[in-house]
Amino acid sequence: MVEIKYVDNKADLKRFVNYPYQKYKNDPNWLAPLRIGEMEKFQPEKYPFHEHADVKAYLAEENGQIVGRIAVIDDDLHNQTHHNNMLFFGFFEAENNDVAQKLYKVVEDEAVKLGRGRIRGPLNPSLNDGAGFQLDAFDTDPYIMMPQSPPEYIE
């Protein structure tokens, strides 16, 4: 059974950040981001984005193994600047559709809780850090900061 776990300690944050390195370790086209940079995106004292946004990370686990992850991103500055009421998600990875649905449900529940009327993503955690899913060219060399995801995410 898949369980969703809120990341509330450094050990789980490390697992959250390291998950794509495990998932894509055999993909010759995956261009791994710097781990230290990925860790810093979740550390308010090191990443200025947190001055105007709240980022919550979640892991999906099954039998003690990570099978997915997602972050919920509530960016007050974006909502004030653009006069919308939006919640974002990012850092999305899922082993299958069931896991994806459970992770998206976390985002939907958070949007309801915060009174947000729209959801947009993926952003990691903002447009400045990478956004979207890869839609084609899965067998070609990637470009830096371009989204990389498996073909099944299109479904």
Write the layout of secondary structure elements.
Layout: E1 2-6, H1 10-23, H2 35-40, E2 53-62, E3 65-75, H3 76-82, E4 86-94, H4 97-114, E5 118-120
Parallel strand pairs: 4-5
Antiparallel strand pairs: 1-2, 2-3, 3-4
Account of the 3D structure:
The chain has 155 residues and is an alpha+beta fold. It has one domain: Aminopeptidase. It has a five-stranded mixed β-sheet with strand order 1-2-3-4-5, sandwiched between helices. A hairpin with a 2-residue loop joins strand 2 and strand 3. 23% of the residues are buried.
Please trace the helix and strand order, writing H or E for each element.
EHHEEHEHE
Described by strand count, sense and barrel closure, the largest sheet is: 5 strands, mixed
CATH topology: Aminopeptidase
Give helix % range: 25-40%
Average pLDDT for all residues? 88
Q: What's the number of structural domains?
A: 1
What is the percentage of strand-forming residues? Answer: 15-25%
SSE class: alpha+beta
N- and C-termini, Cα separation: 22 Å
User: Any idea what the CATH architecture is?
Assistant: 3-Layer(aba) Sandwich
Radius of gyration: 15 Å
The shape is: globular
Number of helices: 4
Low-confidence stretches: none
CATH superfamily: Gcn5-related N-acetyltransferase (GNAT)
CATH class: Alpha Beta
